[in-house]
Amino acid sequence: MRKPIIAGNWKLNKTIAEAEELAAALVADLADVRDTEVIIAPVYTALSRVAEILENSPIQLAAQNCYPQETGAYTGEVSPLMLKDAGCSAVIIGHSERRQLLEETDQLINLKVKKTLETGLLAILCVGETLEERENGEMLEVLTAQIKGSLADLTSDQMADLVIAYEPVWAIGTGKTASNEQAQEAHSFIRGLIQGLFDPETAAACRILYGGSVKPDNVDGLMAQDDIDGALVGGASLKIEDFSRIVRFGQ
Ligand code: PEP
């Protein structure tokens, strides 16, 4: 009942020409994919050009961040409205690189989530613990604070347009993936949190993606877990063969 999502986070990579080339290759390669939603998130500067390439394909376009205001004196920022105008249907919010490098708080992330949903875009909310937090036994506490803080004041109806990405920080870009069991444990815990904050139907319908060194050789095991509904893929989303194989998990 939960349609899988495979999302590629291109991070700070690819010029406009390179982004166009990769997007065109994906459109050609993934034309027959129906049972999985595919999303790609290039840098801001490439969004509108990539949007043109994706126009008649099922691949959706996401931004990697947004600012929680529509317009105004916010130099250097980009709003969900502008992203929609550029052709995006989704926004990644609260990625650990932004939480760590730019000190984004759950309070700011919550504002971004709300503005994204108000604008009619899908919000892909990232949460996850650091290695230190895991080793100190604080994982569940950290996930609870991130989920509660980021989803504050949302309604069950709004949750229909929100996807959670569980991304243990120690597994991002490190080549270390959480084991299938570690990932399942965290996903099941997050689903329980959603049930407590909202209701059983909202929890059962909420898609929870795993992120952290997802590769062609580990995606099948991860996707076989009950509470893993997709993947947010960094490094491997830049390689056409790897990303295509991940999209075709289990085949
Ligand atoms: C990410 O950037 O969200 C990510 C999971 O990166 P990687 O797949 O490279 O670990």
Key structural traits:
251 residues; alpha/beta; TIM Barrel; eight-stranded parallel β-barrel; 12 helices; 8 strands; 42% helix; 15% strand; globular; binds phosphoenolpyruvate
Describe the structure.
There is one protein chain. This protein is α/β, with parallel strands linked by helices and 251 residues long. The chain has a single domain, classed as TIM Barrel, CATH 3.20.20. It has helices spanning 16-29, 47-54, 80-85, 96-101, 106-118, 131-135, 139-150, 156-159, 180-197, 200-205, 219-223, 240-247; strands at residues 5-9, 37-41, 60-63, 90-93, 122-127, 162-166, 208-211, 230-233. It has an eight-stranded parallel β-barrel with strand order 1-2-3-4-5-6-7-8, surrounded by five helices. The two termini are 19 Å apart. The site of phosphoenolpyruvate (PEP) has 14 residues, from strand 8. Residues 9, 11, 167, 172-173, 211-214, 232-236 line the site of phosphoenolpyruvate (PEP).
